[in-house]
Amino acid sequence: MSTTTPNPPSNPLPWNPHQYLLFQTERNRPIHDLLSYLRLSAHPSFSPTRVADLGCGPGNSTKLLTQYFPSAKEVVGIDSSGDMLSSASKVIPELESGPEDKREVRFSLGDVRTWTAPEGKKPDIILANAVLHWLRHKDRIPTVVRLVRNVVADGGVVAIQMPDNYYEWTHRAMREVAVMKGVPWEGCFPRVGYSEGESYTEERPDLDPIESMEEWYQALNKGHVLGNVQMLVNGFA
Ligand SMILES: C[S@@+](CC[C@H](N)C(=O)[O-])C[C@H]1O[C@@H](n2cnc3c(N)ncnc32)[C@H](O)[C@@H]1O
């Protein structure tokens, strides 16, 4: 694993790979959705050799990326959490054994807001699954525009997915139960309870509202940013 110095992380929360992977099956579902959609919609001649997984976490999304696109010979995973990267480095041997020649796999510290590929090595696929909602609102669209304009290879694909479920009934119910009074768990969850409508919380970038489809359309389509690059947005779950 290479350890280039990252910019200050965009989110202050520590990440626990063990805890994260306890729910790997559930967490992987949107990745399957996005990658299946990408594989089905890609031109039959699309055969990516370089792929990048930005916000790769413990490598679960990187692993699926190589399974869906076994032609990938150079695989890069970037994350701002050293703990997540340490966990990701454990899957390197599995990822390196490509179907034919050996694959080159690298996990590095980096920031999705500023990462670029080395000269002449633009990725054919950039995957950013469940990471962009960790950027502040002001950074989110500019980051994607930069990836599309400057970072992905010509004719490549930028595939993104971000959850937007904080105000879904399931999540509301969890918060309501967590802060109940007169129950055995009373006081166990003191940090629950950012209330609805609270739009800016210093330590929770993921609660900044996700931009509407129209905003994305204006930024990407009307500005003719896309050019020869495909953009896959896996509806906001
Ligand atoms: C919810 S996990 C997603 C992991 C994996 N991509 C997946 O789909 O399951 C979010 C990851 O994004 C990383 N992250 C958050 N902000 C980042 C940034 N600005 N640059 C790079 N990684 C970032 C976190 O460290 C964390 O590992």
Would you state the CATH class of the largest domain? Answer: Alpha Beta
Low-confidence segments: 1-8
Number of structurally distinct domains: 2
Please write the string of helix (H) and strand (E) elements: HHEHEHHEEHEHHE
CATH topology of the largest domain: Rossmann fold
Largest sheet: 6 strands, parallel
Percent of residues in beta strands: 5-15%
The outline comes out as globular
Distance between the termini: 32 Å
Second-tier CATH architecture of the largest domain? 3-Layer(aba) Sandwich
Main attributes?
237 residues, alpha/beta, Rossmann fold, 2 domains, 8 helices, 6 strands, binds S-adenosylmethionine
Task: Please give a structural write-up.
The chain is 34% helix and 13% strand. With 237 residues, the chain is an alpha/beta fold. The chain has two domains: 24-39 and 47-164 and 210-235, Rossmann fold; 165-208, no CATH class. A six-stranded parallel sheet has the order 3-2-1-4-5-6, with helices on both faces. The chain is globular and about 60 Å long. It binds S-adenosylmethionine (SAM). This is Methyltransferase domain-containing protein. Keywords: Methyltransferase, Transferase. Residues 51-156 form the Methyltransferase domain. Pfam families: Methyltransf_25 (PF13649).
Describe the structure in brief.
The chain is built from eight helices and six strands, in the order H-H-E-H-E-H-H-E-E-H-E-H-H-E. It is α/β, with parallel strands linked by helices and 237 residues long. The chain starts with 16 loop residues before the first helix and ends with a strand.
